[in-house]
Design brief:
This protein is of the alpha/beta class and about 170 residues long. The protein is about 30% helix and about 20% strand. The longest helix is centred in the N-terminal third of the chain and has 16 residues, at about 30-45.
């Protein structure tokens, strides 16, 4: 006997959709993930009200965003950002520092994570990155080679992988 609908008319059989056996069709490529996470870091850099805009995004091995940060003044010190007589660089918390601290406040283990940054880390941030256990640094742009030499030497000594993000087609 044929199946019927609630009103007694014959029910049409639904065609079963064929399963796509290609499991990679919905997966993002390596370059797509880099673009995505660097875009997140770039988005966060827009939040800063300081002259040097830098963003950071920390990602675990499962491609999950752990923490993000941007350059900002320490709490209670915002007046230094606008004071022309002060050296703002002494008061600004870097994007990498903010991302690492925010993750550690919530007890997230950063061991073997990757950090995406819009500007190559300074030597102070390199120390934090190494001590936190982050194993890969992917950066969009770099300052002059002489300004990043110490950070590069520390990363190499600590076996932290560093590479510049280069979008497809560039």
């Amino acid at each position: 006997m044929a199946e019927t609908s609630y009103n007694g008319s014959p029910r049409k059989k639904k065609k079963k959709k064929k399963k796509n056996n290609n499991n990679n069709s919905n997966k993002m490529s390596y370059d797509d993930w880099d673009k995505y996470f660097m875009s997140v870091a770039a988005l966060f850099m827009k939040y800063t009200n300081c002259s040097r805009q830098v963003g950071a995004c920390i990602v675990d091995n499962n491609k999950k965003i752990i923490s993000c940060g941007y350059n900002e003044m320490s709490r209670g010190c915002s007046e230094f950002c606008w004071n022309k007589n002060s050296r703002r660089g002494f008061y600004v918390c870097h994007a990498e520092l903010n991302a690492i601290i925010d993750a550690m406040i919530t007890s997230i283990d950063l061991n073997k994570c990757t950090i995406y940054v819009t500007l190559f880390p300074c030597n102070e941030c390199a120390k934090l990155i190494i001590r936190s256990g982050i194993k890969t640094v992917i950066y969009a742009s770099a300052k002059l080679e002489t300004q990043t030499e110490a950070a590069r030497r520390m990363f190499n000594a600590a076996d932290v992988t560093i590479r510049q993000y280069k979008p497809k087609g560039s």
